[in-house]
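ERR on first pass: missing label on line 2. Operator R.T. fixed the label and resubmitted. Corrected input:
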Amino acid sequence: MQKRQMHLGVFLMGFGHHLASWRQADTPADSPEDIDFYIDIAKTAEQGKFDLLFVSDGLSFNERSHPSELVRFEPLTLLGALSIATKSIGLAATATTTYNEPFHLARKFLSLDHLNKGRTGWNVVTSYYQGEANNFNQNDHMKHDERYVRADEFVEVVKKLWNSWETDALVRDKATGTYFDQKKLHAQHHEGRYFSVAGPLNTSRSKQGEPVIIQAGSSEQGRAFAAKHAEVIFTAQQTIEEALKFANDIQSKAVEHGRDPSKVKILPGVIPIVALTEEEAWEKYNELQDLIVPEVGLELLSEYMGGFDFSQFDLDGPLPTELPEYNGNQSRKQLIIDMAKREQLTVRQLYQKIAGGRGHRLIIGNPEQVADDLQLWFESGACDGFNLLFARYPGGLDDFVELVVPILQERGIFRKQYSGETLRDHLGLDVPSFRTEKQVSNQTFV
Amino acid sequence: MQKRQMHLGVFLMGFGHHLASWRQADTPADSPEDIDFYIDIAKTAEQGKFDLLFVSDGLSFNERSHPSELVRFEPLTLLGALSIATKSIGLAATATTTYNEPFHLARKFLSLDHLNKGRTGWNVVTSYYQGEANNFNQNDHMKHDERYVRADEFVEVVKKLWNSWETDALVRDKATGTYFDQKKLHAQHHEGRYFSVAGPLNTSRSKQGEPVIIQAGSSEQGRAFAAKHAEVIFTAQQTIEEALKFANDIQSKAVEHGRDPSKVKILPGVIPIVALTEEEAWEKYNELQDLIVPEVGLELLSEYMGGFDFSQFDLDGPLPTELPEYNGNQSRKQLIIDMAKREQLTVRQLYQKIAGGRGHRLIIGNPEQVADDLQLWFESGACDGFNLLFARYPGGLDDFVELVVPILQERGIFRKQYSGETLRDHLGLDVPSFRTEKQVSNQTFV
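pass 2 clean. output:
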C-alpha cells in the first residue's frame, strides 16, 4: 500500500524571504516585478512535483515591509500568467475579504480556475494593516473580530456564486439554438449583514468544481474560520508539540462543523537552507545574515509588533514585556514573542532570527538532515506537509528540488509524478457537489 | 516619407460577435472559457501586426445577453495569461469605475503592464446594467450623469497612483542596502467627493509609463470624458459623415483641454466579412443570418432598448416611435434608432441587422472591397483606424489577416512589422512624464 503522501507548497516572494537576499551579488534585485523570473521558478517547482505555488498580497505600501513586498505584481494578474506558463502545479493567491467585494473575487478566482483548468486556490485573509483602510476610503481598519465576521459572510457569498451553474448547465445545443439549461442555472441570491448580492455569476463551474479555500490565521477567530471553511491551512509552528496541539485543535473544530478532518490539510511554513554538507548550509545562512542592515531588521520586527519603537531599549537586552495592543496579525506577534521567550533571545537576536523567514521555522542542514526533519514532523501527525519559504530564489528552491525532493521520493512519502490534473487531485480533496444557496448557508460541507 | 499609418484593434468575443456564430458546425461553442482558443486568436492577431486586442466585460449575468457573454473569462486574469502568450500586441480590457475601487484597478492594470512589458490599455466604462448594482450591495444603478462624475474622479485617482514612483526611484543599491530613493516615492494622496485614497501604489512605473486610457461612450458626458482622458476612443459610426462630425467634435474638445488632438486615436468598430469573392462573402453572412433564433434576436434588440417589450408590436412594421427612458448605454440606443430610421428597417430587419455586430458597421465583400472601404474612411480623416469585430472566430480573423492585411500593407498604410515594443509605441503615443499629485489634479496632459 502506498504510504501517506506529503504535500508541499512553495511560497513565492521575488528574490526570497530572507530580508537581505536581494543584496547578494548574484540575486536579481528587481525580480518582484520580473515575470520571466517567476516563470522560471514556477517551472522548477513543477519539476519538483510540488502541490502548489503560493503568492501573498497586501493592499498598501509600507516602507517597513520586507523589500520584496515594496513593489510587486498584483497576485491575480500574476496567476493569470502563471496559469499558462505551467501545466500541473496548483496556483494560489491571497486576497482580502475586508477590502474586496465577493462578486469580484468569486469571479476572478473562478476565471483563473478555468485558465489553469482546475488548479486554483484562494488564501482568504482579513488584512493586517491600517494603511489598507486608508487606500479604500476608510479612516480606520476594521477591528479584528469584526473582520472575521465579515470574512465568514464573504466566503459564504463566494461559495454561493461558485454554485451558480450546475456542471452540465451549458448544453450549447446547436440544432435547437439552446445555449444553456435554465433549470440548471441558480441565482444564489444572498442577503446578509454585510452583503446583498443578486447573482448568478457569469462564470461557469470549473474542472475541480470550486477553487480550493486556504486560510492562514492562527488566532482564536482565525482557527474557528479555518475549521469551518479551509481546505488547506498555512501556519507557523516552531515545535512539533505546538504543531500537534494546533492540528488537534483544528481537527476537532472541523469535526464540530461536520467535516472530515482528513480533508483539512495543515501545512506549517518552513525555511529550508540546504547544501551538500551541514557546514556549507550554515555558511549560506551566515552569508545572508551578515547582509542584514540593522535598522531594516529592527524595522521589520517593529512592524510585526504593531509599530512598536524598540530604539529606546537595549538591543542586547530581552524583549520588553509590555507590548502595545495591536489590531493586526495577532498570531504572528504572539509566535514571535513566544520564540523570544523560549530561546531567550535578545532584541537583536530576535530581529536577526525573523529576518530569515518572518517567524517561520528554519531548517539548516545537509539533504538527509532536512529530509529527516520534514519526515519526522510529517509522520508525527503534526502536519500534512509544508509550505516552503526559500530564503532566496531561485537558488534555495533549486537546491531543495535537486537535493531533498529525491530523498523524500525515495522514501515513498512524496510523489514522483503528478497522478492527477487539478489542485484538488494533488491534495486528495474531493470535487464538491453542486450545492443550493440554502445548502451553502447551512454550511453543508461535502 | 512614410504615409500616415492605420491602427487596428481586434475585439475578442469567444466564438464571435454574430449572435448565431456558435451554432455553426465548426465553431467551438465553449470558446468563451477556453484559454487555448484565445491564445490561438491572440497569436493570429499578432501575426497580422494589429495594434491591440480588446476584451469587454460586464459584472452581471443577463439571459438576454449575447451568448458569448453569458459565461466568460474575467478580463484581467485573461489578460494576465495573454500577456505571456504574446510578445508584441497591445492588450486592453474593460473595467468599470462604478463598481470598483481605484486602488484595485490602478494596481491590476499597472501589474499587467509589467507582465506584458508595457502593452496594456484600460477601457474605462461606467456600466450599463441594473443587474450590476444588484451584485454590489445596491438597489439602484447610479444615474448616467453621476456615473461620469464618479468616473472622472476615479481616473484622476488612478493616474495619481500610477505616478507614485518616479522612473528611477528603485535604486536597489546592494552595497549600501538602499532599496529605493525616498525622495522619488510620492504618496499622491487623494481626497475627493467619491474617493479618499492615501497611496502610494505598491507597483512601480512600467515600461510605457502608464497603461493607455481607452473610452467608448458617445453620449454628451461620454464625449466630454473622452476628450479629457482618452488616448484611444472606440466608437460606433455608420456613415463617414457622422464619423467626421464625431471626430471633429472630439478633437475640438480635446484642444479645449490643452491636449494635442493627434494623440487621441479614434477607432470606429467595423465587422468585416471577407472572402475571395463578394458573392462568397455574402454567402458567409447569409449562412450566419439564417441561424438566428428569432426570439433571441428580438431579446437582444429589447436589451439594447432598455428592456422594451416588442412582442406587442408588428415585427414587420417600423420601430415604435415612443421608447422608454433608459439609464444604460444611451449612445448605442440612439445609434440603433438612427439606423432603423435611416435605412427604414422593420423591427425584424433591425434585430437581424444588429445580430451581426450590435450596431457596428458591416463591410461585406472581397479583399479589395474591404480594403478600399477601410482606406476611404481612414484617408477621409473620419478615423485613425478601426476596432475590428469579427462575426466569428477564428475564421473571420483568419480571413482578414490572410486576405486584407497584405493589401493594406502593400498600400503603405499599415505596418509590415512592429517598429516598437509597447502599446504606446504602436499607437504613436508618447510616454507620459512623471506628474505630481497636483499636476494630475490640474489635468496637465503631456
